[in-house]
Records
---
Amino acid sequence: MIVLVGFMGAGKTTVGHLLSERLGLPFLDSDLVIEQRTGCQIRQFFAENGEPAFRELESRVICELVDGSEAVLALGGGAAGHPDTIAGLKSAQVIYLQVSYEEAMLRVAGDPYRPMLSRPGLEDLYQHRLSLYDTVATLTVATDGRHPEAVSQDVLAQLARVPAVPPVTT
Ligand code: S3P
């Protein structure tokens, strides 16, 4: 399982689609799966149920997807903060797409479908999440100023060099 993590605007969905084509694996997006299952958009779910309920559901969905068939799976930007998700990702190849706060905001500013963008203290949240992404990542790829195609090539090159996850024990 190839999992993409990173802040909003890192390019997880775009790069995920490119990787799924190149690797011949299905593409999954945890936010889309949640929307399909609840029949409700993420922003509506936040408005009606609040962020803690979203995080619980998000973690359950991700753990289930990670345990399922091989795929390229893009996670929402806040998913790596849940302890069950962190534990569930131990069996996956987790690629952290790095983006600076400034570039992330240029990419997603004003998107009404991302409820976290209107949250006060967003830059502090970004700073807090950096160590979470580092904790779960098995590979890290920079994205600032780069085309998604170049980022996906970089991911593929790095994947070719690293051992499978989890490591094979003898
Ligand atoms: C969130 C990011 C969103 C989505 C939800 C919460 C976050 O996904 O999961 O709005 O907390 O950063 P993207 O990272 O794909 O925008």
Note: The two ends are 21 Å apart (CA to CA).
---
Amino acid sequence: MSKAVDLAIVLAAGEGTRMKSSLAKVLHPIAGKTVIHHVIDAVTPVAQELSVVVGAHREEVESHISAIAPAAKKTFQSERNGTGHAVQLALADTKATGFVLIVAGDTPLLRTSTLQEFVEAHTELESVASVLTAVLPDPFGYGRIVRDDLGAIVSIVEERDADEDQKLIDEINTGVYLFDIAALREASKKLTADNSQGELYLTDVISLIKSSGQVAVAIQSNDFTETLGINDRSQLAECAAIMRDRINDEHMRNGVSIIDPMTTWIDSSVVIENDVTIYPGSALYGHTKIESGAQIGPRTTLVDVTIAKGASIIESRVAESEIGAEATVGPFSFIRPGTRLAARTKVGAFVEMKSATLGEGSKVPHLSYVGDATIGEGTNIGAATIFVNYDGIEKHQTVVGSHVRVGSDTMLVAPVTIGDGAYTAAGSVITENVPAGAMGVARGKQRNVLGWVLRRRAGSKSAEAAKDAGATELGSPE
Ligand code: UD1
Ligand code: CA
């Protein structure tokens, strides 16, 4: 199927002054993608060619566009002489003929389906110049659509140029247009900066085309939220919340349970199968993929994580890792990049892992650090075990075999290997390999200094308790 319009122009040269940011306005992220990336994604399916007008933050915006839309043409607008000027430059840069769609780079909620409907209406009405409009509860700041007695569009008047009556109009210009390219070229030559901002307004093209006797129409969209633009941080948050709701609604329609959609933030790139449950306060980012039956949250953050069927991640943060089927993580654990948990593994409370593989059915239940390690199957890592992977200069590997029992509070000083079926004694500092089936013991032998408390802490509550239990200054009971 051929794409409906020959060319799309995205206007993105503006300063974005009201964002008060060192980052270009169109490069701020919403749901894991930049504002302009959302716009380009919406436009791409309907346009054969894409052209972006850049200006402020030129390098950053251009390199981002090269990354997300390599085929797009970039036109540089060195001075910000208005939307009409930006379009003149884009047209001078292309030989395209036919129809052009023009959108602003700061309206990330626009949907492809709305653009398609707009194109259909434009074609059906045999229009030469069409503007997409919306009725807003608060039209302040937008260009207003002035219609004649028969309802036909006459002109678009900017807020700053509007008289009191025009300011009462609640139908606004969304900044989305369709033009016959030849007619637009002609009309844009006639633009003047005769307005309060001293700029060339693209909006004036509509009345110019109309007064030349050609068909110009205003087509109203029914969902005004789609055309909200981002000029400041409040609008950024408002658009992000609308995007969040859209994404959550789609997952819920696909059979995902989201207990509290208001506090659940899911990037548009995340893939979730049905019968997954997401508890409140969770955030799923990047290339995260979650298989059926998994339970995520509450208060869990996943960044680029793959989660297999039936796994559960409770109150934890996991990044760039793979979690196997029916594995459990948390509460309160931190799984860092390069971790692979096999099926039916358990990582309990207050565990940090990094670049580590945990074999099927193995457990790290409590208070441990596991870094740069490979652990076999059916192994248990006792509470408070630390994989001592860093000697202050370099990181080293630890290998733990299958069906190993690492005693609580073991320090495994890497590089070190614990053979299959081996044990370590609680509190050991293991610096040498433990062969298969051996018990590694590496700690001082215990010595009891009898009567010490009665001699050295005489009169204390401890001494009293010891005395009551039969201890004397010379000895203690068995
Ligand atoms: C513009 C419209 C207004 C409409 C509103 C919708 C004009 C004159 N006004 O106003 O009728 O209701 O959008 O959001 O067009 N840009 C350039 N180069 C420039 C000026 C702007 O590329 O020289 C780009 C901006 O980066 C932005 C878009 O054009 O993406 C719109 O510009 P902006 O200044 O935001 O226009 P508004 O005042 O919002
Ligand atoms: Ca704007």
Note: The first strand starts at residue 5 and ends at 12.
